[in-house]
Write a structure and sequence with these properties.
The complex is a heterodimer. Chain A is 80% helix and 0% strand. By secondary structure, chain A is mainly alpha-helical. Chain B is 67% helix and 0% strand. The chains are: A mainly alpha, B mainly alpha.
């Protein structure tokens, strides 16, 4: 868990959100670009989850461990859930659905980093 | 959730799908937060944490109502949105007026500032969306529109 991974993941989330909002603005459905960007985001999140899991196994203990683990799990699932929920939407609003999920991921990443760095001794 | 389409086509399609996504995220976030707070530190701020739990229930009910759709789903969602709006306004005002009563943040503290004020905007969007659906769904008014009978006491 470090800014070295959080920053690229946040950028990827911002790209997904921007693509989503763009397709809504252009009145288009989501397409290959959205799938690719969401895939990249998901890959970064999985890498981050593995790194954080290794850190936990190595003895790092965030003060709010339960919250941290819940966030870590949710943040990995969110892009997948968002994409599935958007994919079945036949109108231009699919992109906004994806943007909502990506925005939530972006916020949660920084909250995760906060939680990770506060170790309650 | 393709199987939900037949019942939820009205409330969970188009812009409604965005609302479901937002409500889903908040249902997840507030439920897990309330669960952790109630389980690990209930004594610290019972009022705030019970309010967190209430907020979580409201978000879950609103999400379910929107996904299910139809007349009962819309009614459920409308009530949930109204409770949510009242909650965020009342708790928001109280948390600013008497911070000592809210030693820990709830979703609705400071009108939802910890969540970028989304909790304040969300019920308004929800109610507007439900109202626009109700306008679409009601039969075109005959002339003159039938007088609404006042609710009997």
């Amino acid at each position: 868990m470090s800014t070295g991974l959080v920053v690229p993941a946040t950028v990827a989330a911002a790209v997904v959100a921007a693509l989503g909002l763009l397709s809504t603005a252009l009145r288009r459905r989501i397409g290959m670009a959205h799938l690719t960007a969401t895939g990249v985001l998901e890959l970064l999140l999985v890498v981050q989850a593995v790194v954080a899991g290794a850190g936990l196994a190595g003895g790092h203990r965030p003060a709010e461990l339960a919250t941290f683990v819940a966030y870590l799990g949710s943040v990995v699932l969110l892009p997948v859930a968002g994409y599935l929920w958007a994919r079945t939407e036949p109108t231009r609003w699919a992109g906004t659905v994806l943007a909502v999920a990506a925005a939530a991921v972006g916020v949660m990443l920084w909250r995760l980093l906060q939680l990770w760095e506060v170790t309650g001794g | 959730m393709a199987e939900a389409r037949p019942t939820g086509t009205d409330t969970a399609g188009g812009p409604g799908r965005v609302l479901v996504a937002l409500y889903g995220v908040f249902a997840l976030a507030t439920t897990s937060r309330a669960a952790v707070q109630l389980a690990t530190q209930f004594d610290r701020a019972p009022l705030a944490y019970l309010l967190s739990a209430l907020a979580a229930v409201v978000y879950v009910v609103a999400t379910v109502g929107l996904v299910r759709g139809g007349r009962p789903g819309r009614r459920t969602a409308t009530i949930a949105c109204a409770v949510e709006l009242a909650g965020v306004l009342i708790v928001g005002a109280l948390s600013l007026a008497d911070p000592a009563a809210f030693p820990d943040e709830t979703v609705w503290s400071g009108f939802g500032r910890g969540y970028f004020y989304v909790p304040l905007v969300l019920p308004v969007l929800g109610l507007l969306w439900l109202r626009s659906l109700a306008a679409q769904n009601s039969p075109p008014p005959k002339s003159p529109p039938p007088p609404k009978s006042p609710p009997s006491p």
